[in-house]
Design a protein that fits this description.
The chain has 215 residues and is α/β, with parallel strands linked by helices. It has one domain (3-214): Rossmann fold. The protein has 9 helices and 7 strands. The protein has helices at 3-7, 13-20, 25-36, 52-59, 71-83, 100-103, 123-136, 154-175, 184-193, and strands at residues 42-46, 63-67, 90-93, 109-115, 137-148, 197-205, 208-214. Strands 3-2-1-4-5-7-6 form a 7-stranded mixed β-sheet, with helices on both faces. Helix 5 (71-83) links the parallel strand 2 (63-67) and strand 3. The longest helix has 22 residues, at 154-175. The radius of gyration is 16 Å and the shape is globular. The structure holds S-adenosylmethionine.
């Protein structure tokens, strides 16, 4: 929810995320990497931010292409990669999801990851992103999404929206931007329409979902 505020100050992003997630964010990055990263595989990390998932994948021996539209976040990610001596395993590129179609050839990537990125896309952009992802993954390739998602029941959704309203206003006033939790069922339907089958769906918390999909 406060992600946009943290992204506006990339040097504070990692500390902020650890506080917001009560220390659980690094374990999530590792978990996502374990679903996809192996030596010899190429992984595209979409919206890499400060490189949490990308570096976890590189540590497991994958070749990683890590993309983001925020130059400040990428510069922190590059510094972290150098510190961990993983810079040869990760290419950081300042491009957005909209450019992936031109940047990568069809069926050229073994796996993709997107942590806290779909909640920054409009439903139209999500649909487009999934179409491009499905076309750029190799047959049998995996996509792992982890994101803030709306609770399942209508009542819980309204309660969640109500609780979120103040934070949303603060975020908008500070950044003129906001995130919207994904509608998990809608996203799953969009994935299936693009030929991405759901292998794992877990609610890590009532409002946080992990999806593992396969081409
Ligand atoms: C909340 S941060 C998450 C960063 C990282 N994945 C993590 O989990 O720590 C969202 C990131 O996605 C990036 N982003 C948002 N929309 C994007 C798009 N369409 N293409 C590429 N990056 C995008 C933002 O610039 C930001 O760095």
């Amino acid at each position: 929810m406060y992600m946009k505020v943290l992204e506006a100050a990339p040097e504070r992003y990692d500390r902020g995320m650890r506080t917001l997630s009560r220390g659980r964010i690094d374990a999530l990055y590792e978990r996502m990497a374990q679903f996809v990263a192996r030596p010899g595989r190429t992984v595209l990390d979409i919206g890499t931010g400060t490189g949490g998932v990308a570096l976890a994948c590189a540590r497991l021996g994958a070749r990683v292409i890590a993309i983001d539209v925020n130059a400040g976040m990428l510069s922190i990610a590059r510094a972290r990669a150098a510190e961990l001596q993983l810079q040869t395993n990760v290419q950081f590129r300042e491009i957005g999801m909209a450019e992936v179609e031109d940047y990568l050839g069809p069926a050229s990537v073994d796996a993709m990851t997107a942590c806290l990125v779909f909640s920054e896309m409009s439903p139209e952009m999500q649909r487009y992103a999934l179409k491009v992802i499905a076309s750029r993954l190799k047959p049998g390739g995996r996509l792992v999404i982890a994101d803030e998602g709306l609770p399942e029941t209508l009542w819980a959704r309204w309660r969640y929206r109500f609780r979120r309203a103040a934070a949303l206003l603060i975020t908008f006033l500070q950044t003129l931007n906001w995130t919207r939790p994904i509608d998990v069922r809608n996203l799953e339907n969009m994935c299936v329409q693009q030929g991405l089958g759901i292998r794992i769906q877990e609610r890590l918390q009532p409002n946080f979902t992990l999806l593992v999909l396969e081409c």
